[in-house]
Each structure stands twice: as structure tokens, then as C-alpha cells.
Design goal:
It is a single chain. The chain is α/β, with parallel strands linked by helices. It has 14 helices and 17 strands. It has two domains: about 240 residues, 4-Layer Sandwich (Metallo-beta-lactamase, Chain A); about 140 residues, Rossmann fold. It is about 40% helix and about 20% strand. Helix 13 crosses helix 14. The protein starts with a strand and ends with a helix.
Length: about 400
């Protein structure tokens, strides 16, 4: 077994990993670094020869740092099936559109033609079969499970029957989502694990993160309202749910941009949420329909994405604050600067805390492992903490 990183190790962004096993080359994720200043630093560090020899691609979830280099890989000669959940595939196509608009706004070079997006050979993974072993090649099989990060996001475990080697990819994961479940992988010792290390040795609790956000909303909403910036998928569904009871308790009005509502309606037809979530979201959709028709403009909470900011469709009175619990995108940064709007940035965990990282590490008992999705210092701190945790559990 051989592991190669084309991006995502000792850096945040452009996750792209290759595993070579029994003569097969499997790529997991193919993303970009949106904050990079050059094309070379933005896209994975692979060559034409590298991508042309890939046998299969697996995508853990739709976010830009895991998917937006797929068209670039195709332009270099990638000719392999790309496996992902149907939800991830649909969201990835939306992120392609968003990136095109963002790149135009920021005057960034896109190193491929748009046709490459349509040439990606997407193969949807049946979520109903998640948790069951599936034969990929004659000698290699895999199993997938929900990892709690976003709609349809998955971890993958590959097993080579010939060498009896196994490798686990966590993708971006959390056990603390308000709406998305986390499925534990099989309780078996793996040979190699690629683990999400974005939060490093963070010990803060999700409940405290939520309380801090709600406190800011209590301070700002009654007076001027709040624009709440969220990604297309993931935190957006978490915060839609968390704010339902918050707004009901305080008799506040919340609305969400059309894209988020359309996405929520689609997800309602899939079995992707924790139990009990469906009922609460159904009520919200009914109320939201009336709000959009009324055109009311009193202070409120408005959930929006980069799509709304790019399209100039923000309904604002000019006094709101902008709040985000994620990375500040180039689009968001430009918008708050142009509008001279206060920006409140607070944490919300969609990556594992040290407690969660330790729990998964002890569950997998990997012979060797590597942490990704974080700068070198953060990565080394987490890897050292996990090794200590393994020693203390003996």
C-alpha cells in the first residue's frame, strides 16, 4: 500500500489523496484552496501522468476544497468513475456554478474549459446500501457511512482481499451535528487511516459554540437584524434547525434565501436527517412560504449564501450585522467591506474536537495514520495527542 497527498496535508484546503493498493490507484477527494494566490497553489499538485492512471475517484462531500479540482483533473485526462452520494453530486454541480461566478468577481484564472464539468463520470452511491461492503474491483471492496459533516457526506473504508490491507478516509466529519447522523465504521483495526484534523486539539463543546452565537443574535436582531452567512450545504441545515426554536421562543422572524429552501425541500425526500428533524423542518417550510409572500421587512434573521451576495439579491435595510460560523469566503469579505457592515465570526464545529478525534482513533486502532486539513503545527499537535491517547488506552 502506498499513500500520496496531492494537497491537504499540513494545509487547509485542496484535499486530494491517492491510495495505491493491489495495483489499483484510488483518488479520494479533489479540491482547491480558495485562499491560494496562484493557480499552482490553488489546485492539487498532480500531473497529467498522475491523473491518467487513476482507476477510481471517491468524493467525501461537496465542499469546494474537496471537489472543485475535478474539472481540472478531467482536463488533464482523468478518465475514471467518480463515486459520491447523489446529494454530494448535485451540490457539487451547484458549487461549480458558484466558483465560476466567484472567479469572475475576483479575476481568478480557471485552468480548464467549462465542458470539463460535464465530462465528469459521476456514479451515485446508493445511500440505502451505505454500511454494506461493495465490490469495487476483483480484489478491492469498500464500505461507506455518514460522517455528519453535510448532506450525503461519507467516510470510506477500503479493503484489499489479496493483501488483507485496509485504509480508512474520514473525510471532514463531526459527531456534533444538530441534524446529520454519524455512522461508526466497522470496529476493526485498520492498517492506515487518513483523519480530519482541522480542529486540532480543540476541546470546546458544541453547546458553548451554539450559546455564543445565540447570544450575539439576542444582542443584534431586536434592533437591526442579522444576515447569517452559511455554506450551500452543511452548516446551513444545522443552523436552519437550531434557529427554529430560538426564533419561536423570542417571537422573531427568520427567513432563508430561495436556494436554501429548495435544497431543504429536496433533502426532505431523503432519509438523511436524525430522527425527529423531518417534522420540525416541515413546519418551517410551511411558515416560510407565507413569509416570502408577505414581503415583510421588520428586523429578522436572514440565512444566505454566496449565491445571494453575488446576485445582489440581499434584502437589507442597511443596518444589519453579518454573522458567520465558517471561513470568510472572498465573496463575503468583499460584500461586508463594500457595505461597511460589521462582521461577527464565531466557531461552530463541523470538524472533530479532540474528544471526537480520540474516540474515532481508538475505535479504528490504526497501525499508522495521518491527520489532514490543518497547518503543520496544528497537525503535529493532534497527531501527538492521538498517539498519547493510544498509549494510555493500552
Amino acid at each position: 500500500m502506498q499513500f500520496t497527498s496531492y494537497g491537504g496535508v499540513n494545509e487547509y484546503g485542496r484535499s486530494c489523496f491517492l491510495i495505491e493498493i493491489s495495483g489499483r490507484r484510488i483518488l479520494v477527494d479533489c479540491g482547491i484552496s480558495k485562499s491560494a494566490e496562484t493557480v499552482r497553489e490553488r489546485y492539487p499538485d498532480f500531473s497529467e501522468a498522475d491523473v491518467q492512471r487513476i482507476d477510481a475517484v471517491f468524493i467525501t462531500h461537496s465542499h469546494e476544497d474537496h471537489t472543485l479540482a475535478l474539472p481540472y483533473a478531467v482536463s488533464l485526462g482523468l478518465n475514471a468513475p467518480v463515486f459520491a452520494s447523489a446529494e454530494t453530486i448535485a451540490q457539487t454541480r451547484a458549487y461549480f456554478q458558484l466558483w465560476e461566478k466567484t472567479a469572475a468577481l475576483e479575476r481568478l484564472l480557471i485552468p480548464y474549459h467549462k465542458e470539463a464539468e460535464e465530462q465528469i463520470d459521476f456514479r451515485p452511491i446508493d445511500m440505502a446500501a451505505a454500511g454494506e461492503w461493495t465490490l469495487l474491483f476483483d480484489e478491492i471492496e469498500y464500505i461507506a457511512g455518514a460522517n455528519g459533516h453535510a448532506p450525503g457526506s461519507l467516510w470510506y473504508l477500503f479493503y484489499d482481499r489479496a493483501s488483507e490491507e485496509s485504509v480508512f478516509f474520514s473525510g471532514d466529519y463531526t459527531m456534533s451535528s444538530a441534524v446529520f447522523p454519524f455512522d461508526w465504521p466497522p470496529a476493526t483495526s485498520v492498517d492506515f487511516a487518513v483523519l480530519d484534523g482541522a480542529n486540532g486539539v480543540c476541546r470546546s463543546k458544541q453547546a458553548d459554540c451554539i450559546a455564543d452565537v445565540l447570544s450575539q443574535l439576542d444582542e443584534h436582531v431586536p434592533h437591526n437584524g442579522v444576515l447569517f452567512h452559511v455554506p450551500l450545504a452543511g452548516k446551513s441545515q444545522d443552523w436552519l434547525y437550531l434557529l427554529l426554536s430560538f426564533c419561536k421562543q423570542r417571537d422573531l422572524r427568520m427567513e432563508a434565501e430561495p436556494f436554501l429552501m429548495q435544497e431543504l425541500e429536496k433533502l426532505m425526500h431523503e432519509d438523511l436527517f436524525k430522527s425527529g428533524i423531518f417534522r420540525d423542518f416541515s413546519k418551517f417550510l410551511n411558515v416560510q412560504a407565507g413569509i416570502m409572500e408577505s414581503g415583510e421587512t421588520e428586523p429578522k434573521i436572514t440565512l444566505l449564501t454566496d449565491f445571494t451576495l453575488l446576485n445582489g439579491a440581499v434584502r437589507t435595510q442597511g443596518k444589519e450585522a453579518m454573522l458567520t460560523t465558517g471561513p470568510v469566503s472572498p465573496v463575503l469579505k468583499r460584500y461586508v467591506e463594500e457595505e461597511n457592515m460589521p462582521l461577527i465570526k464565531l466557531p461552530y464545529h463541523v470538524h472533530p474536537t479532540l474528544t471526537e478525534s480520540t474516540a474515532l482513533y481508538r475505535h479504528l486502532q490504526p497501525t499508522s495514520f495521518i491527520c489532514t486539513h490543518a497547518p503543520k503545527e496544528t497537525t503535529e499537535q493532534l497527531e501527538a495527542a492521538l498517539r498519547r491517547a493510544a498509549f494510555s488506552s493500552l
